[in-house]
Specification:
Largest sheet of chain A: none
Radius of gyration of chain B: 25 Å
Oligomer: heterodimer
Helix content of chain A: over 70%
Distance between the termini of chain A: 52 Å
Number of strands of chain A: 0
Mean pLDDT of chain A: 83
Strand content of chain B: 25-35%
Order of helices and strands of chain A: HHHHHHHHHHHHHHHHHHHHHHHHHH
Distance between the termini of chain B: 41 Å
Helix content of chain B: 10-25%
CATH topology of the largest domain in chain B: Rossmann fold
Number of domains of chain B: 2
CATH superfamily of the largest domain in chain B: P-loop containing nucleotide triphosphate hydrolases
Number of strands of chain B: 21
Low-confidence stretches of chain A: 286-297, 584-611
Strand order of the largest sheet of chain B: 7-8-9-3-10-11
Largest sheet of chain B: 6 strands, mixed
Radius of gyration of chain A: 28 Å
CATH class of the largest domain in chain B: Alpha Beta
CATH architecture of the largest domain in chain B: 3-Layer(aba) Sandwich
Order of helices and strands of chain B: EEEHEEEEHHHEHEHEEHHEEEEEEEEHEE
């Protein structure tokens, strides 16, 4: 046994960490960890961030002493349970239909779900708010109820849960797609041969196998719903329904501003969230999530007969409710002189482009979307790659830090950032600038980027890299010629998804934006809540959606173009080789192809590669 | 081409765990095809990776040619890309985003060879592995065997001074493996590059190498030509690994420079074995023999090392029969080709309980000290 003391062991471990890795670890700790610590600090301090104040428990006594807080807690739980029930059941049904049955249009289901996932939550809240307003499309069709109000009212408990559930279904669908697809077919066949009916098989085999996944996702979704601000703010607050995020926002948006109470409430929310995450891992342990077997088995879709038309109808209904009808309402609303008043005008669109606010907001949104997505994806790739390749055990720490952040709601994070950056003299100057919004958005979307990239990065075989090294590539050249081209497509996809999420976020800018750094979603929210500006909000929201769609198409196009170009280039190397005809006469050297006749892009590559 | 010298190579993956390779000494001559043979976890891959520079040794010294490439005591480590080697990996490790030509041309591109020269050399080496028609295909569009040929071409193209093979055939099916084996042999005959080959398959090692190093737990168990390893194993471990399937306890009767005579424990049978140093009268030993080396029936009657035994079991395996013979407390198995059985016993093969004559050629026996 070695005689080293505990202290020596720690020093030795640190010594085994290379300097760049250490710098990176410190950066991760500061970037992700420090704001959360400051949130705790803030809860015990009266006064605003960056000003002098006393330490005390007033934040806690104020927040927890108020019976309204506990009502909010129950309301939040009710809300989250409702949304997640819809999300899980709907997501599971659609995932099953699209991967295991012969329901027509299974590709369309996935594409639709990705679209709904990418659309800012704001869209569903505002469009459904408009649809069920007294002059909305749905109210016009269904008429008014006995008390004169709309028969279907989004500004209600039911509305709140249903509208949030619309997006919840898409999120759960995307998360369940893999596990449902990976269900081992031979287990089902074995059960059928043992005499189990289809239903028995489902109950006895499929559900238990999926249970760890389902419960894990249920908790993840529950946690997300607990922290979800947008819908609750737009549909809940007008109806007098308060959940945690809106309560926190209320503390911060109405005078007297109570930072300490907001922080205390945020801490309680985080405590509940981590407790749930902990419970889940305690209950299920590190049990292997799913029986993913080799690629050998083929995916057979079950013929469900006439039920497939029911499946298709269900999908079409969902698409209509989540996507088509809201879009129609937005288009109509944006063309009305005043929301709900019939008539036709392009005034609102023209106004948008006259307004310096809108142009600035568009610029800001573009900036945080593009750079936020880029940095989040870069960080995520770097983190996964380090964890995969570094021999130091400390290199796995950043992954854990990012997973800790995934549970932190946007509004809580915005508050934490406020504390973190206003409390440090140098960083204080960032407050009120677009950078603070960008930093917060990067933190929020990095876990998503992590999820999107860790799989493909993890599949990067180490031998692919080693063979490059052995065959003459230095580490940086190996990165440039092998690693980056291989993870490029994943990188682009993740960049786009996280960019869209950053651009569509409301809970970060609502706390951190100043008048100069408003984003489009914040502006849409402001217009919508101002009386008489609903049409303008609809117009701006549509502009945002169109821009996001264009961005998506552009990204797809660029990705495809790059892929094609790369393949053409590499194949042209083969054409060059083909051009060298074996020489029949051994004493004459084979005429090498004239460099001027080499296809242009090949020369570009070789020029680039020798640089 | 270059010789490789490994001096007391040590590799520990963590300071506390036992070393994967404790202290290995090995010299690989110029132009040699040396195989590191052993079961998984014997340190053969670790050794190869240290030579490649993919793993940093924790002690000792590795030189390729006249260049010391690893000497941890002097803080010397030449990165893999500066070692001028070619390597074939178990998983082929072809880059899926590149065409066959780009994969094969990569080492040349890294060595800044001009584009036309690159095309010419890629063409030559692809021709050598029979894939010149496939230059513009994507590497991953090829079959497993073709992919491994591309990997071989890539290792060869830059004419490196050393070729390394890390179980290159283990992902191929049996027939393809055989084809690739003879191709590798041809290739080595033609280019003559010093090669180090790692495998756990004794057949592969015996058919390819000029010399075999048998490793066990990071240490060398035996070094020798394929013939030496195959017929003169020095230990139970080696004998077991290269396919000896009968191990019988015996006591040395006489031992000199001409041979060793032993008596099989529990019987009166005296067996002559090849000479072996370090044995004296009365020593307990283990006799190893291959079931396929034993001769039975009439031809055995006039041979040395003759014995009689009782058939206790017969297993039919299609193209061969396994007879299990019992002599007193000892049992051993004999395998006979099905066609041979009819030759030896034209009037009907023996059945269970019959007494038969068998002979074990002295040269096919290995006398292993316990």
């Amino acid at each position: 046994m070695s005689g080293e003391t505990h202290g020596e062991a720690i020093v030795n471990r640190l010594r085994s960490v290379s300097a760049p890795l250490l710098v990176f670890l410190l950066f991760i700790a500061a970037f992700f960890g420090y704001p959360l610590l400051m949130l705790v600090y803030g809860a015990f301090r009266s006064g605003q961030p960056g000003t002098s104040g006393d330490f005390g428990l007033s934040g806690f006594t104020n927040a927890y002493g108020d019976p309204a807080t506990w009502e909010t807690l129950w309301a939040s739980v009710l809300y989250a349970v409702g949304v997640q029930s819809i999300g899980i059941v709907g997501g599971f049904v659609f995932a099953w239909l699209s991967t295991r049955t012969n329901t027509p249009g299974s590709r369309a289901i996935t594409v639709t779900m990705i679209t709904i996932f990418a659309i800012p939550t704001l869209f569903f809240a505002i469009s459904w708010g408009m649809l069920t307003s007294p002059t909305g499309l749905i109210t016009q069709v269904l008429g008014t109820g006995p008390e004169g109000g709309p028969r279907l009212d989004a500004f209600s408990w039911t509305g709140l849960i249903l509208v949030s559930g619309l997006k919840g279904i898409a999120v759960m669908y995307l998360l369940l797609l893999g596990p449902v697809r990976a269900l081992n077919r031979s287990m089902e066949e074995a059960a059928r041969l043992s005499g189990a009916s289809r239903l028995r098989l489902f109950v006895d085999i499929n559900i238990p196998i999926l249970l760890p996944t389902l419960s894990g996702l249920a908790i993840l979704g529950f946690v997300n719903s607990l922290g979800q601000l947008d819908v609750a703010l737009i549909l809940g607050v007008p109806a007098g329904i308060y959940v945690f995020p809106t309560q926190i926002y209320d503390f911060l948006a109405t005078t007297p501003i109570r930072y300490d109470s907001a922080s205390a409430l945020a801490l309680l929310l985080i405590a509940i969230i981590y407790l749930l995450v902990l419970l889940r891992s305690k209950a299920l342990g590190n049990r292997n999530f799913i029986t993913v077997t080799g690629k050998a088995y083929r995916l057979e879709r079950e013929d469900i007969g006439a039920w497939k038309w029911a499946g298709l109808a269900l999908f079409l209904l969902y698409t209509a409710v989540a996507l088509v009808v809201p879009l129609v309402q937005l288009v109509i609303g944006s063309l009305q002189p005043v929301l709900g008043v019939s008539g036709f005008t392009l005034k609102h669109y023209l106004d948008l482009f006259d307004s310096p606010n809108v142009l600035r907001a568009l610029q800001n949104t573009f900036f945080v979307g593009v750079t936020g997505g880029f940095f989040a994806t870069s960080l995520a790739v770097l983190i996964s790659y380090l964890a995969l390749r570094s021999k130091s055990r400390l290199a796995k720490a950043p992954e854990l830090v990012v997973w800790a952040v995934v549970a932190v709601p946007g509004i809580v994070l915005a508050l934490a950032i406020t504390w973190a950056y206003l409390s440090l003299p140098g960083l204080r100057n960032l407050y009120g600038s677009i950078w603070i919004v960008l930093i917060a958005l990067i933190i929020v979307v990095t876990p998503i980027a992590q999820r999107a990239t860790s799989g493909p990065v993890g599949q990067l075989g180490v031998e692919l890299e080693e063979s490059a090294r052995v065959h003459g590539a230095s580490a940086p050249r190996m990165m440039g010629t092998i690693v980056i081209p291989l993870i490029g497509p994943t990188f682009l996809a993740s960049w786009f998804i996280t960019g869209v999420m950053a651009a569509g976020s409301l809970d970060i800018p609502i706390l951190l934006s100043s008048t100069r750094t408003e984003t489009v979603s914040l502006l849409v929210y402001n217009y919508y809540t101002q009386l008489g500006n609903g049409s303008r909000a609809a117009a701006l929201l549509l502009v945002l959606l169109v821009l996001l769609a264009l961005g998506g198409a552009l990204m797809l196009g660029i990705g495809r173009l790059l892929r094609r170009r790369a393949e053409r280039r590499t194949r042209s190397r083969g054409a060059l080789v083909d051009a060298v005809r074996p020489d029949p006469e051994p004493d004459r050297t084979t005429p090498a192809p004239d460099p001027d006749q080499i296809p242009d892009d090949t020369r570009a590559v070789s020029a680039a590669s020798t640089r | 081409m270059a010789r490789v010298i490994i001096e007391s190579l040590e590799k520990r993956y963590s300071p506390k765990a036992a070393p994967a390779v404790p202290a290995l000494d090995l010299e690989i001559e110029e132009g040699e095809f040396l195989t590191l043979l052993g079961p998984s976890g014997c340190g053969k891959t670790t050794t190869l990776r240290c030579i490649a520079g993919l793993e940093r040794p924790t002690g000792g010294r590795v030189s390729i040619g006249h260049e010391v490439v690893d000497a941890p005591a002097e803080r010397r480590h030449v990165p893999p890309e500066k070692r001028d080697i070619g390597m074939v990996f178990q998983s082929y490790a072809l880059w899926p985003h590149m065409s066959v030509a780009a994969n094969v041309g990569y080492p040349l591109r890294m060595r800044k060879v001009s584009v036309p020269e690159r095309a010419r050399r890629v063409r030559d080496v692809l021709e050598m592995v029979g894939l010149d028609e496939y230059a513009s295909r994507m590497a991953t569009d090829l079959s497993g065997g073709q992919q491994q040929r591309v990997a071989l071409a890539r290792a060869l193209v830059a004419d490196p001074r050393l070729l390394l093979f890390d179980e290159p055939l283990s992902n191929l099916d049996a027939r393809l493996r055989q084809d690739m084996r003879s191709e590798l042999r041809d290739m080595h005959r033609r280019v003559g590059t010093t090669s180090i080959y790692v495998t756990h398959d004794q057949e592969e090692a015996v058919s390819l190498s000029t010399r075999i190093v048998l490793l066990n737990k990071g240490e060398i168990e035996q070094v020798g030509t394929p013939r030496e390893i195959y017929w003169h194993p020095v230990s139970h471990f080696v004998a077991d690994f290269v396919g000896y399937d009968n191990f019988l306890g015996a006591t040395v009767v006489t031992a000199d420079a001409h041979g060793v005579a032993v008596r099989l424990d529990g019987t009166d049978l005296r067996l002559d074995c090849p000479a072996r140093a370090g044995l004296g009268e009365g020593d307990q030993v283990e006799i190893a023999m291959r079931s396929a080396s034993v001769i039975m029936g009439e031809p055995a009657e006039t041979m040395p090392n003759r014995c009689t035994g009782t058939v206790v079991d017969i297993v039919y395996l299609g193209d061969e029969y396994i007879y299990v013979l019992e002599m007193g407390p000892q049992r051993f198995s004999v395998s006979l080709r099905t066609a041979e059985v009819a030759n030896i016993w034209p009037h009907g093969a023996p059945s269970r309980g019959d007494t038969v004559t068998a002979a074990i050629p002295p040269d096919s026996l290995a006398c292993l000290p316990l």
